[in-house]
Amino acid sequence: LPFLSGSRSSKTFKPKKNIPEGSHQYELLKHAEATLGSGNLRQAVMLPEGEDLNEWIAVNTVDFFNQINMLYGTITEFCTEGSCPVMSAGPRYEYHWADGTNIKKPIKCSAPKYIDYLMTWVQDQLDDETLFPSKIGVPFPKNFMSVAKTILKRLFRVYAHIYHQHFDSVMRLQEEAHLNTSFKHFIFFVQ
Questions:
Q1: Which domain holds residue 165?
Q2: Which of 5, 57, 72, 78 is the one with CA 20 to 30 A from 47?
Q3: Strands, DSSP E only, in 9-101?
Q4: CATH number of the domain that 74 lies in?
Q5: How many domains does the chain have?
Q6: Is pLDDT above 50 for 174?
Q7: What residues are designated binding site?
Q8: What is the C-alpha separation between 88 and 53, in angstroms, rounded?
Q9: Over 70: is that where the pLDDT of 34 sits?
Q10: Binding residues for Zn(2+)
Q11: What's the whole-number mean pLDDT along residues 30-54?
Q12: Does 30 fall in a domain?
């Protein structure tokens, strides 16, 4: 992978979060992919009949994490400490990092550092069986909806940064259609 070479930390590239094959969540993911294939994004985000809302949100949150991870991974060579000394989406939107555990008071940091913190934080949430249970019948926590909303709100910031700071690179790489479809899907889902 050429974009993993150079001085950049490959830590930004989180391993793809796999949903176990044969699981109910895997079937839900396949359903989501099939409806996405129809080209109707509004229909693709609808909760399938008879399905658990939390499980649907969990599967889609993992999927968006993987998509954003991949999209950002293609432009990391352009998103450096030098080119993006602050995490922003234009002069009016600057994001400071805090995870509430290790970093309690929000800190100002470069975009690549912020995104590394963010993706590591999301990965840790997704790997936490008490928050994102992967076994059938294990209940989701009472605060699941607020956890998922926080994750999605923060993932939105990566899209915002890519669009504001790196869209020219995305166009040079001819990835704008993929980025636009992913973002549109994301927006319909969070709505």
A1: 61-190
A2: 72
A3: none
A4: 1.20.140.30
A5: 1
A6: yes
A7: 79, 84, 161, 166
A8: 32
A9: no
A10: 79, 84, 161, 166
A11: 75
A12: no
